Amino acid sequence: MGAKILKATQEAIAAAASLIRGGEVVAFPTETVYGLGADCFNPRAVAKIFEVKERPHFDPLIVHIAQKEGWRELASSGDRRVEALTERFWPGPLTLVLPKREVVPDIVTSGLPTVAVRMPSHPVALALIKEAKTPIAAPSANLFGRLSPTSAEEVAEQLKERIPLILDGGRCPVGVESTIISLLEDPPRLLRPGGVPVEEIEMTIGEGVKKESSSSTAPQSPGQLPSHYAPRTPLRLLEERCEAPQGVRAGLLAFTPPEGDLGYAAVEVLSERGDLVEAAYRLFSALRRLDRSGVEVIYAERVPEVGLGRAIMDRLRKAANKFEGDWG
Ligand code: TXA
Ligand code: MG
Fold first, then answer.
1. Domain architecture of the chain: domains with CATH
2. pTM (2 decimals)?
3. What tens digit of pLDDT does each residue of 184-202 get?
4. What is the distance in angstroms between the CA of the first residue and the CA of the last residue of the chain?
5. Which residues form the pocket of ligand 1, taking CB atoms under 6 Å from any ligand atom?
């Protein structure tokens, strides 16, 4: 097929919206990562998302809306925390899991009685949803289990031959996926750390959020699968900064700039000044460059696990997990 990559002008957004109304899937920018969207009320269109991504059907999708109150069409909840959270964080990188209404097709939620909803803040995403006149079901626009794209070029690398259109809105300003909170439990549970720090969520609702993953064997949020978000190159988490190992071409994913040459074949620095927001923004593209640099192993430094640092460490652990057993 060969996707058109169009700068996200009004005209291009209108073209994307009409593809969505016609049951097609298109890639579009959000403030977190690029999404692969379809009309959430059209099960055939939603099925194409799974096909394009080669995504297992048990992995449910987030539905994107363009108005704060839009969740009421998709979910029913009398929980006062919904109001507090949407008031404070929408539009923005927070996804709420709520009891679903009948109108939401099972393919969107993988048969779960719940639906994940978020109102993105990216102006292109909002314009697209409004123009399409339907909520848009969208996962990140990557092949299943691979790094989420934060630019139109990165979407094209993985999906160009599989979709008709990629809306180019430049680089995503947040750079990691949304924070997912389930309001079906009391207290609420963090299903995935992301762009909104969980500490801020706790302040807003005035109570703690469960952070350990749930004990049930089926993951509630398959983003919790241990091998998500992985580059191709094996990744190891470093306990602390150290020199490159002998006898292997190694890359370093550094949080802050290393002093002097540590002997790595390639080095990516997440933030010159140790800023976690900037580090999150750069994480996926830095991993991608290391992946392409021809190193045999990537050593990743830890970052402080506060604020956006939780999301960064979550993704690094998942990337490391994929290759457990392959290395040392
Ligand atoms: O920032 C984001 O959230 C991006 C942009 C495009 O909005 N989307 C994204 O979607 O990361 P995806 O599909 O790659 O990750 C969504 C996660 C999955 O791990 C999925 O299992 C979980 O949300 N999820 C969706 N619906 C759920 C539900 N009803 N209950 C629990 N988890 C759910
Ligand atoms: Mg994803």
1. 4-205 (3.90.870.10), 235-322 (3.40.50.11030)
2. 0.86
3. 999 999 999 999 999 999 9
4. 43
5. 30, 32-33, 35, 59-62, 93, 95, 97, 109, 112, 114-116, 118, 120, 138-140, 177-178, 180, 191, 220-223
